[in-house]
Amino acid sequence: MSDNTAGPTAESITPSAPEEFGLVQVWWGDGKGKTTAALGMATRAVGHGYRVHLLQFMKGGTGTVEDVRGEYNAIAALPGFSYENAGHYGWHGFMDGSDDGEHEARAQGALARAREILDASGEADLSEPLDPEGPPEDGVNMLVVDEILYAANRGLVDPADVVSLVEAKPDDVELVLTGGHERPEYVFERADLVTEVGKVKHPLEAGHPARKGTEY
Fold first, then answer.
1. In contact, 19 and 188? CB cutoff 8 Å
2. pLDDT in tens, 128-169
């Protein structure tokens, strides 16, 4: 009789230092799954004991999406994974009553915050395991800057500032940039991985709203 339990098994998470981190990833396109892919990869990194931080630019909640997202609850349960949301309530440019000036101010603040975390990581000893309970100001191995490319598309941050952020990245930090339906050509030359997530079909086109557990 075959052993149905054969295969990889889960082990306890022990803080560790990655040996091969340091690339720049870009996930963009008009299809669903950019943030989802980045979060899946971040979870994999956390499972190996690496320190990961998620910084979201434009997901401050809307009238049709609850303020508490499922990923936040999951992240809070994982050692070494932290998050913060700098998004303004509403969605920029959608005539939802939100203040465009506040959207820009929040995006600029998030850009400065991303730079702060990268600078702090450059001062940390990333060859040694980082404290999974330590703040991101103590350094991270992977920084996911979610929706920053949307913010650049919409003029909330300057694409040149996104390039500067990439150029400021410490050698051993994995930097993941997501968002945007427009090709972020300005960052392609500096990226090591570029993935376009293309839409073939989406339930929103059939009138299905964002669903708890899949979109938030």
1. no
2. 999 999 999 999 999 999 999 999 999 999 999 999 999 999
Q: For each of the domains in the chain, give its residue range(s) and CATH number, in order of start.
A: 24-59+67-206 (3.40.50.300)
What gap in Å lies between CA 102 and CA 89, rounded to an integer?
A: 9
Residue type, 131: D
The model carries a pTM of 0.87
Nearest-Å Rg of the Cα atoms of the chain is: 18
**Tens digits of residue pLDDT in 186-206:** 999 999 999 999 989 877 777
Q: H/E/C letters for each residue in the chain? A: CCCCCCCCCCCCCCCCCCCCCCCEEEEECCCCCHHHHHHHHHHHHHHCCCCEEEEECCCCCECCECCCCHHHHHHHCCCCEEEEECCCCCCCCCCCCCCHHHHHHHHHHHHHHHHHHHHHHHHCCCCCCCCCCCCHHHCCCEEEEECHHHHHHCCCCCHHHHHHHHHCCCCCCEEEEECCCCCCHHHHCCCCEEEECCCCCCHHHHCCCCCCCCCC
Banded pLDDT at 90 (limits 50, 70, 90)? very low
- The 10 Å Cβ neighbour count of residue 13 is 15
Tokens of 81: 């994974």
Place of tokens 């400065």: 112
Q: What would the two tokens of residue 9 be? A: 């098994």
